C-alpha cells in the first residue's frame, strides 16, 4: 500500500474517533440526571461511604457539627 493510502486510513480513523466523541458527548449532555441527583439539590452525603468523593470531607464536617449541636442541646 502506498503512503497516500496510509494517510487516508489515518485520517479516517481520526474522523471516526472525533465523530464518536461528539456523539457520546451530545448523548451525555442530553441524558437527564437520575432521581435525587438534580442540580441545585446538593449531594446526599448522609448515607454515602465514598471517601474519595469531593463532597465527602465537607459533609463529614457538617455531620460532626450537627452531632455536636445535638449533644449540646441534650445537655441543656
First CA to last CA: what distance?
87 Å
Elements, N to C (H/E): HH
Which percent range fits the helix content?
55-70%
Radius of gyration: 25 Å
Please tell me the overall pLDDT: 81
Q: Which quaternary structure do these chains form?
A: single chain
Largest sheet data: none
Strand content bin: under 5%
Briefly note the structural class of the backbone. mainly alpha
Number of structural units classed as domains: 1
Number of helices: 2
Q: What does the overall shape look like?
A: rod-shaped
Q: Give start-end ranges of low-pLDDT stretches.
A: none
Feature tags:
76 residues; mainly alpha; 63% helix
Walkthrough of the structure:
The chain has 2 helices and no strands. It has 76 residues and is mostly helical. It has one domain. It is rod-shaped and about 85 Å long. The N and C termini lie far apart (87 Å). The relative contact order is 0.06.
Lay out the secondary structure.
Layout: H1 3-30, H2 56-75
Write a compact overview of the structure shown.
The chain is mostly helical. It has helices spanning 3-30, 56-75. The protein has one domain.
